[in-house]
Design goal:
Elements lengths: L10 H29 L4 H27 L19 H28 L3 H8 L2 H21 L3 H15 L1
Bound molecules: fe (ii) ion (2 copies).
The site of one fe (ii) ion (FE2) has 5 residues, from α1 and α2.
Length: about 170
């Protein structure tokens, strides 16, 4: 029997938040896949950065699961499609990073809009908490892609960016 809460989630909003659990999980798996691609090609700094992004997406997924469960809606854990594992270059791979982070940002914005429509201030407040980080993540991904495009195939330039990412990954 599910827990009863006075601040019940709107069924449509609950469904969308529940689907977002899978999207954060998909994002985490994608970053793990990117980390492996980078690691075996000598991009060890990129690999470390992708690993730390993967950990971040797992943390987000957990927050969504907790929000749903705390409000009496049992979060669903789904089987996911395998993430992409091949890219022709680190720049092509990073185009996928930029697309992923922009999609994550767009989905958070859509969920905030839906929470407003449902007058669900608890969900709205929870979702707003992701906004500053998502803006930073998106801007950071854009900036790294810009820098990759500047250096192109120049090995020394790529090593410099790799070192920067290793430092960022901590
Ligand atoms: Fe995320
Ligand atoms: Fe992210």
């Amino acid at each position: 029997m599910s827990k009863q809460r006075s601040s019940a989630l709107d069924p449509d909003l609950a469904q969308r938040l529940d689907e977002h659990v899978s999207f954060e999980a998909h994002s985490a798996l994608t970053y793990f896949s990117m980390a492996s691609w980078a690691e075996v090609r000598g991009f060890t700094g990129f690999s470390a950065w992708f690993r730390s992004e993967a950990t971040g997406e797992i943390a987000h997924m957990t927050q969504f699961i907790d929000h749903l469960n705390n409000r009496g809606f049992q979060a669903t854990i789904r089987t996911l499609e395998a993430p992409r594992s091949e890219w022709s270059s680190i720049t092509e791979l990073f185009e996928a990073v930029v697309e992923l982070e922009h999609r994550l940002g767009g989905q958070i914005a859509d969920l905030i809009e839906l929470s407003h429509k449902c007058s669900d201030h608890f969900a709205g407040s929870f979702l707003q908490g992701f906004v500053p980080q998502q803006i930073t993540d998106t801007a950071e991904a854009d900036e790294i892609l810009d820098r990759l495009r500047i250096v192109g195939d120049d090995g020394r330039g790529l090593i410099l960016i790799d070192q920067e990412l290793r430092a960022k990954a901590g």
